[in-house]
Amino acid sequence: FSSIGQFFSVKKLSSVMVNKSMPMLVVFLIISVALSPIVLGNPESRFDVKDYADNDSRFIQTVSLGQATFTENGEPGYYLIEGENLAQYEILVEIDNMETDVGTYSPTATWLGSIPYVVRTQTLLALNVPDSGYVPKTVDPTTGFPTSEDEIYNVLNDVYNNGTVNLDGNFFISPSTARELYLLEDGNMTMARSWFQVERPDDIYGAMMDLKVDLDASASDLNAIDGVSVQVAGLSYERYVYMLEITDSFQESLVVAIVLAFIIVLIVLRDVRLSLITILPVIAITLWVRGGMVLSDTPVNLVTVQISSLAIGLGVDYAIHFNSRYREEIGSGNTVNGATSSTLKSVGIALTLATLATMVGFLTNIVSPLPELKDFGILVS
After folding, report:
1. Residues 6+ away with beta carbon under 8 Å from 272
2. Which of 125, 181, 187, 235 is most buried as measured by Cβ atoms within 10 A of its Cβ?
3. Does position 62 have pLDDT exceeding 70, yes or no?
């Protein structure tokens, strides 16, 4: 570390700036003039309305998808149920119990189809309307399901091929809808969907996280059956997973950033104790920011999750400025108390003013119409 520190010595770098001041000044001026708005004038905007008005554009497709799936009441989600053969009486009963339990805290989406309802509907249709499909003989009067695996499969196969309609005529499942609802292959039902409604939330991340706990609890008995797997799915859950993965990976990267910052500080300062003193306040500030988000009930999103990285960058800068001046004071023979006092009066005041200026700059975000930018400005400040 000592050798690397000497190679990247600040004194060496500063001597280059002194000895080559004129060439560096020329380069600086050339770059500044080349990038100056006076030279560039008022460049044409890259905004192209066709990117937004074109029906094939990503923006329009996103809006269309949102309008198609997100009504005022929310959007559909579903359980993905998989197994070697789901066409069993016990499994149908558990799916029915699961859907009933989900209906106690989240609106059901039976209008998109329900395996238990489809089996009951087709069974009643076959029993009451001649030539309307396979007629099962082992129907349980309590549940309305056939108790035989073969009969359950035959009922589902009827719907697979011809669809079904209830006796009142106000519910219809087409063959194509049935194929989206469940999968029949090699004489077994190997996949099924159980639909529910995800209500429109203010905080998609937090709402889906809470709903996921309830959904998992409702599916616990079904999931406990050997060979049966139940997984929450749908657009809302996908967005929740994406956000979870992004935030988790970002928080993991913060640890890496702090470690790398410590190594860089150690190379520059060549003092383990002083490097630890430099990095510890940065760790504290990172914890304070996240703690403040929890206490203020600020949601974690793609904008607010980046605040910790800013805290690390600003904190390391300020700590290095302070420690460097402190070391200079000690090196000139000042006492610990004298060096601390002198550093606070000089660098401390400068950093305070710099921080206040930065704070005011970020506070301008509170007038933004985007809630994420408002939270970002307040938290950074």
Report:
1. 266
2. 181
3. no
